[in-house]
Specification:
about 65% helix, Four Helix Bundle (Hemerythrin (Met), subunit A), mainly alpha, about 170 residues, single chain, 5 helices, globular
Length: about 170
C-alpha cells in the first residue's frame, strides 16, 4: 500500500474512533480488559503524541510534553490533528527513527498509525455497541504482513523475552 492510502485509512478510522469516544466514554472495552473507552482514547492520544514528537524531532522522546488542556475528546482531537499534519508535511521516504531497523522512514509511521487506529477503532465500536465498520481489504492484508513480519518475525528475534512461554 502507498503512504497516501495509509493516511486515508487513518483518517477514516480516527473519525470512527472519535464517534465511539463520544458515544461511550465511560463504557468498558471488552477487548482491552480493565480499560474504559476514555482510557482507550487516552492510550491512542498518547501514541499519536509520541509519534508526532518522533516526526518533529527525529528522536524518541524521554518524556512527552504536558498534554493540552481539555477533556479526553479535546486531547484526542489535538493529538490526531498534530499527527496528521506532521505526516502530511513530510516525504514518506524521509528518515526518522522507528523500532524496526529495516524501515526508518516517515512512511513506516504512517503505516503503523493506520494499523494502530483501525484496531482501536474496532475496540471502541465494540465498547460503544456501534456497528463495526468494515476494515478495508488492502489494510487488512497489510496488517497481516505487519504482524507476521514486523511483530512476530522481527520482534521474537530482537525481544525474545517478550515472546517467551510463561
Amino acid at each position: 500500500m502507498r503512504t497516501e492510502r495509509f493516511r486515508e485509512c487513518l483518517t477514516a478510522d480516527a473519525a470512527r474512533l472519535r464517534e465511539a469516544i463520544v458515544a461511550a466514554a465511560p463504557a468498558p472495552v471488552p477487548t482491552c480488559p480493565g480499560w474504559t473507552v476514555t482510557e482507550l482514547a487516552d492510550h491512542v492520544t498518547q501514541v499519536y503524541r509520541h509519534k508526532t514528537v518522533v516526526l518533529r524531532t527525529g528522536a524518541f522522546p524521554e518524556e512527552l510534553p504536558p498534554a493540552p488542556a481539555g477533556g479526553v475528546l479535546d486531547r484526542y482531537d489535538a493529538a490526531y490533528a498534530e499527527l496528521v499534519a506532521e505526516l502530511a508535511a513530510r516525504d514518506p521516504g524521509e528518515t526518522v527513527p522507528t523500532w524496526y531497523p529495516p524501515d526508518q522512514t516517515v512512511g513506516f509511521w504512517a503505516r503503523r498509525m493506520a494499523h494502530e487506529t483501525v484496531i482501536h477503532r474496532v475496540d471502541g465500536e465494540l465498547a460503544a455497541g456501534l456497528p463495526r465498520a468494515r476494515i478495508p481489504a488492502d489494510l487488512a492484508v497489510d496488517g497481516v504482513d505487519e504482524v507476521l513480519v514486523r511483530f512476530l518475525d522481527h520482534g521474537s528475534r530482537h525481544w525474545p523475552d517478550d515472546f517467551a512461554t510463561r
